[in-house]
Amino acid sequence: MLAELRITGLGVIDEVEVVFGPGLTAVTGETGAGKTMIMGAVELLLGGRADPSIVRPGAVEAVVEGRFLVDDDAVGSGVDGDPLDGEFVLRRVVPAEGRSRAYVNGRLETAATLAEVAGHLVDLHGQHAHQRLLGATAQRQALDRFGAIDLVPLAQAHRRVAEIDAELDTFGGDERARVREIELLRYQVAELDGAGLNDPNEDDRLAAEEILLGDAVAHREAAAAALELLDGDGPASEAVGRALAALDGRSPFDGASVRLAGLVAELGDLASDLRVIAEGLEEDPARLDAVGERRRSLAELRRKYGDDLASVIGYHREVADRLGALEDHEARASALDAERLAAEAARADAAATVREARRRAAPGLADRICEHLRTLAMPMATVEVAVDGEAGGEVEFRLSPNSGSLMLPLARVASGG
């Protein structure tokens, strides 16, 4: 069902949007109001000829969009059983200059494809305009409805083959592209494996170590100066000791004496810690060079593979997984090839079943049509429903209107009446 029609820049129409409800909708108006343009818009959605002269003067292009709701009864009525259900949005763009464009659900298609899809959705009635039954698609659908042909297995078989083909396409594209990608990934994985990176904070640790190693002499001199003031008879220790001796035995200052005694002990511990640290500060040019080189390597990895080391580690995992998948290509591709052969066989079986069902139904449909033609004062008319092609998808109605007339395709002999 046509649920909504939107027209912009077509003939006398600047912009209009029509929302259709169930049942009959009558479009009325005085001469020149644009009724014919609405029909012309529908014909454009049917793949009709797009003449730039229909573009509204001053407009860059004419645009027609139609939203269609497909009933469940239409499921399986597409080409060779391809399901047609849900919602379809068809769009036709006619530029004032250049070629027209056609879209089906937002995807660019040819006008022929648009006509094929729209043929399932719209039927025009009128003198020389009841064209749907003249088309191969409508004739095939009529036969399928008459014979209650079950197209679902064929549609499922089509989809399965398409799914396998899509998965095969993910294996690195063509062979040369796959080989190139594998070579690149092997280089990257080897480089990242060789880097041995597993700590996202490694560069921060190395930066601290580099500062420590780069100024070891000055660090030891600073520690020695501090120890001279704190250790043994140094000025700080001596001053605290004298203060403690001055308060000795003075009960009002017992608390202060305790604190001074603790400070003496703390100064001793602090001096001991400084001595240990200073003794560990040794010049190590080789280690300093190694730290600098490692930091430069980490910087290069960040330049190539991520903003920080955590990102580099994550990228390492990703490319390793992708490389593994590509290197397993042959085994998986072989399995998919086997699956595809089975799916193709299933599709062929389903197609053969549909073809046979269509051929069985064809004579009955031809007889039924002849019965109707006799009620229309065509007693000598004979009809043939020809079925050919894969899955019997090439269905053609043929008519001989009178005795002795040639049996010709319906599209060639049907008159407007």
TrEMBL record:
Is ATP-binding included in the keywords of this UniProt record? yes
What are the Rad50/SbcC-type AAA domain coordinates in residue numbering? Answer: 4-51
Please give the Gene Ontology molecular function terms for this protein: ATP binding; ATP hydrolysis activity
Coiled-coil residues are none
Query: Sorted alphabetically, which CDD domains does this protein's record hold?
Result: ABC_RecN
Mind telling me which GO cellular component terms the entry cites?
bacterial nucleoid
Signal sequence: where? Answer: none
- Keywords in alphabetical order, please: ATP-binding, DNA damage, DNA repair, Nucleotide-binding
Example GO BP: SOS response
- InterPro entries xrefs: DNA_recomb/repair_RecN, P-loop_NTPase, Rad50/SbcC_AAA
Q: Does the keyword field hold Nucleotide-binding?
A: yes
Q: Name the family the entry cites.
A: Belongs to the RecN family.
What's the protein name? DNA repair protein RecN
